[in-house]
Amino acid sequence: MEYTIKENMTNEEMEAVFLAEQERLRDRISCTDIHDISEYRTIAGVDLAYWKENEQERAVCCIAVIDINTHEVVERKHFSGEIRVPYIPGFLAFREIPLIMGCVELLENEPDIYMFDGNGYLHPRHMGIATQAALYLGKPSVGVAKTYFRVKDTDYEEPAPEAGSSTDIVIDGEVYGRVLRTHTGVKPVFVSAGNDISLDSAVKLAMMLTDKESHIPVPTRIADLDTHEARAAIRETGEYNG
Fold it and tell me: Which residues pair with 50 in a beta bridge?
């Protein structure tokens, strides 16, 4: 990471720093496969949960490493701490990446690929959390969001109700992501490439990793569940590791 946040910076000053960093990284984005997805053995699901404590915003990042073939959990870790960056639209990654990187350092098993509860290429500068974090991690990644992030006021077209149905999210003639129905008749999820993977492969992984328990893929579903448990435990004990 080549940006610095100084004390007492205004939101406008931070936004300028963040924009410069995203523009620096932008040329490194690749939406092509560096591996066939059959080569991946483990995937890490990443999610965060927030809360306020004495007016200070805090969060916990949970990572669940999953065996892609069996869907069994290989490892779970969490890392918590203060959020030092205010919310600025389009720059969510800068709030979350310090905790994500802290949690990654705790992992004993290096995952082959990451899946984030959020967007990747589906972003005004193609720099959602799944993409920006992947560029720092040096690993391929996928973004699977539960809610739609509207870019340039572009709406999406609902896919057919059957499982596996999808529609592309096209903005200014470019495909930014895909709306995917993982189970028949349920709400769709929003899949985008993070980095070093194609959108087609990202969608295949999302379908492969979705079981009958939920319409959300297993890695991010477990990470999401873990954030709720970790947040409750931390708020009760006051024990932070970040």
Answer: 59
48 in any annotated domain: yes
142, 208 Cβ separation under 8 angstroms: no
Cβ atoms of residues 39 and 113 within 8 Å: no
- Residue 6 within any structural domain of the chain: no
Nearest CA-CA partner of 114 in 200, 67, 46: 46
pLDDT in tens, 97-149: 999 999 999 999 999 999 999 999 999 999 999 999 999 999 999 999 999 99
- DSSP three-state, residue 68: coil
CA distance 152 to 22: 18
Structural domain tally of the chain? 1
13 contacts: CB under 8 Å, gap ≥ 6: none
Longest dimension (CA), the chain: 52
Please give the angle made by the CA atoms of 16, 18 and 24, to the nearest 5 degrees: 105
Identity of residue 31: C
Using a cut of 0.90, tell me whether the model's pTM lies above it: yes
User: Residue 163 and residue 212: Cα distance in Å, rounded?
Assistant: 11
CA 168/CA 166 separation, integer angstroms: 7
